[in-house]
Design brief:
By secondary structure, the chain is mainly alpha-helical. The protein has 22 helices and seven strands. The protein folds into two domains: 370 residues, no CATH class; 96 residues, 3-Layer(aba) Sandwich (Rossmann fold).
Length: 494
């Protein structure tokens, strides 16, 4: 059915709303929101400078190529605030198109599709479980996940070989971007194949091509990490066993951190509706298998403290992104039953409008309610940015900075911090430097690590040359040999 003008306006309205919801955290912070974002910016700069060293971060090199491409068009630090907000539009349009295709047999296909993307943008974000507020490999992967799962299931269900090939190509594309976003789905797709086994005979040759995924994955892993070949499979196996404590912060996350109670209730109604109807099960089976498989994975983690193929935190997020369709389908079921109960068309229309208003209100009312431990933080502010850009006039060296701003040092100034909050460096010496008041101890650390500059929020009386002092940001030049300043042009602060 062709989209009407009013329907098109509604899609545009949802896109505009999505943009501002995702952009809203940047109203108080014009810089990247998460240390992961700074980490990926740093990796893209190293890629640009052909300065890669083999490590696990390189397994997401595809994402770093995306950032590298963007960096040729604009300053990443200053423009990063727009990336997630722009990308959410691509994500919701992808999901809307898929949902319209999957529900074309329903009279209310548009209602199901529009509410699917409304529930999608209601998914909350925090610094532990991530989400749409952040532009990371996970965020980049989401529309590709929807696409490859849809094409795979459509290929099986309709015995469409082209769809299977397209699904495979998307999965191969996603491997060097965010491999976990493929690994998590393997049990889901396998269960789908088992249930639909009566349809796979004509597709066996096409399905055999999917064996390229582990082969290509192993090759990418070997090339980017340079692990010894005889240890490769053992290392890979250990890396896909995600034990409790994976990541920076391990919490007993509530499912309501990401999704609203009303949306969960509607998703359960939608799930039960599919299970109770043979025709629904035939065409919408993946929407049952996807969430139930991940719920099982989460339960296994809670019992064993081990998550296989993808970490618990990501499984919780992958579970939630499977629910918008079910929530929309549950809402559709309620509206359908309301129509049977209210014989008067006007009464039904009023009840339908009131129900939709109530659902939208309850869905978004807790959107900004974030647990205290996972709330947003500021890595830098405007004065930090200006102080760090001041250092761009000096050739790259090692610099001491407070741990809070360390992740922003290299992306902005091209200097290397002694240590960062999580990813690398000698944090013990860094903390000792700022904790001690003894100048001899400080100088020993400076000499040990050949430190050229010291960034401080307060005055340090240790006979170093002060070269910058603005807005309580002080930079000292040490006595270590440092190349002379070079001419430079600073990017305009936001």
């Amino acid at each position: 059915m062709k989209t009407t003008k009013n329907q098109l306006l509604l899609i545009i309205l949802v896109c505009i709303t999505a943009f501002f919801l995702i952009y809203s955290p940047h109203l108080s912070n014009p810089f990247p929101l998460h240390i992961d974002e700074y980490h990926h910016i740093s990796s893209s700069i190293n890629l640009k400078q052909n300065n890669l060293t083999p490590n696990l971060s390189n397994t997401e090199i595809g994402f770093h190529f995306v950032l590298l491409t963007i960096s040729y068009l604009t300053n990443l630090i200053l423009s990063y605030k727009y990336l997630a907000a722009i990308y959410i539009i691509l994500t919701i349009l992808t999901l809307f198109t898929i949902t319209k295709q999957e529900t074309k047999q329903f009279k209310e296909s548009f209602l199901i599709s529009i509410f699917t993307i409304i529930f999608l943008i209601s998914i909350k974000s925090n610094v532990n479980l991530l989400g749409f507020w952040f532009f990371t490999p996970l965020t980049l992967a989401i529309p590709l996940i929807y696409l490859y799962i849809h094409l795979f299931t459509s290929g099986i269900n309709h015995q469409n070989k082209k769809h299977l090939i397209y699904s495979l190509l998307i999965m191969l594309l996603l491997l060097p971007i965010h491999a976990i976003s493929i690994l998590f789905s393997l049990p889901i797709l396998l269960i789908y194949l088992i249930i639909k086994r009566n349809k796979i005979n004509p597709l066996k040759k096409n399905l055999s091509l999917f064996l390229a995924i582990p082969l290509v994955g192993i090759i990418i892993f070997k090339l980017t990490t340079q692990f010894p070949t005889n240890q490769l499979l053992q290392k890979l196996f250990s890396l896909i066993l995600f034990k409790k404590g994976w990541g920076v912060l391990e919490l007993n996350n509530s499912p309501f951190e990401l999704y609203s109670p009303i949306a969960y209730i509607l998703a359960i109604i939608g799930l039960l509706a599919i299970l109770s109807n043979k025709k629904y099960r035939e065409n919408l089976l993946i929407h049952v298998i996807w969430p139930l498989t991940l719920i099982l994975s989460i339960i296994i983690f809670k019992l064993t403290n081990i998550s296989f193929l993808s970490p618990y935190q990501r499984n919780l997020f992958y579970l939630v992104i499977s629910l918008p369709f079910l929530s929309a389908f549950g809402l559709y079921q309620i509206i359908k039953h309301l129509k049977k109960l209210s014989k008067n068309p006007t009464t039904h229309k009023i009840l339908k409008i009131l129900l939709i208003i109530l659902v939208i209100f309850l869905t978004f009312k807790s959107y900004y309610l974030i647990p205290e431990q996972t709330q947003l933080y500021k890595t830098i502010n405007q004065s930090d940015y200006k102080a760090l850009t001041f250092l761009t006039q000096y050739p790259s060296s090692t610099i001491l900075t407070p741990i809070q701003i360390s992740m922003a040092v290299f992306p902005i100034s091209s200097h290397n911090p002694l240590a960062t909050y999580y990813f690398y460096g000698n944090r013990q010496d860094l903390e000792q430097f700022y904790q001690t008041t003894n100048c001899n101890t400080k100088n020993q650390i400076i000499t040990k690590h050949n430190i050229s500059f010291i960034y401080s929020k307060s005055k340090i009386d240790c006979d170093w040359g002060e070269i910058y002092n603005k807005n309580k940001n002080i930079i000292y030049k040490t006595n270590q040999p440092t190349p002379s300043p070079q001419p430079h042009s600073l990017p305009t602060p936001p």
